[in-house]
Design the sequence.
């Protein structure tokens, strides 16, 4: 068993050397759903919308951080931040320095270099990734939108730490239901976080 800062990980033999945790933030084993986070927030909450989102002023075109386009910024606020800082990363904030939410590229690498299949583990539906003689299981934990939890058992949504540069009110994430896809979604949405770290 490989442990880093109290959390188990596996080496899938990926070209970048990225090491993937075996459970979500807020969970103690791979089948537990864990917590749900808006992008750039480090604590779960009850209501997920633009009014409660930390880095905007109540509207998707009034962003106060992680904004590369003036027409999306609050009072034309812009910055050069395209990936989550550690202080805004749910993985780092909850698990400690050295852990982080995967980048868009790390999700792409995982899909490109592993065998992934839909499966059920201990009665929980999800996606199994296998490579290098090891595996990780991502439960279909659903997602939070407004004050409701949707699609448990049929949908898994996992944030990356990468901003959508075309529409900075969105960020990249990996999701699976009937398909597997890396896409963008509203930053206020409550999705799962599966941490990674690297020995490099």
Sequence:
């Amino acid at each position: 068993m490989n442990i880093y800062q109290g959390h188990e990980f596996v080496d899938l033999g990926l070209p970048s050397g990225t090491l993937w945790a075996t459970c979500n933030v807020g969970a103690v084993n791979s089948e537990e759903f864990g917590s749900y986070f808006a992008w750039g927030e480090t604590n779960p909450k009850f209501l997920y919308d633009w009014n409660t989102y930390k880095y905007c002023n109540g509207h998707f075109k009034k962003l106060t951080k992680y904004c590369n386009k003036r027409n999306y910024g609050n009072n034309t606020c812009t910055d050069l931040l395209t990936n989550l800082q550690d202080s805004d990363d749910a993985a780092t904030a909850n698990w400690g320095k050295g852990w982080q939410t995967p980048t868009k590229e790390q999700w792409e690498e995982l899909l490109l270099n592993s065998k992934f299949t839909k499966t059920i583990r201990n009665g929980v539906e999800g996606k199994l990734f296998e490579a290098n003689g090891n595996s990780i299981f991502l439960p279909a934990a659903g997602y939070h939108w407004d004050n409701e939890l949707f699609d448990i058992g049929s949908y898994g949504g996992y944030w990356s730490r990468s901003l959508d540069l075309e529409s900075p009110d969105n960020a990249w994430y990996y999701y699976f239901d009937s398909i597997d896809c890396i896409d963008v979604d509203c930053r206020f949405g409550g999705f799962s976080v599966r941490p990674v770290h690297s020995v490099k």
Summary: The two ends are 19 Å apart (CA to CA). The longest strand covers residues 124-131. The longest helix spans residues 104-112. The chain has a mean pLDDT of 96.
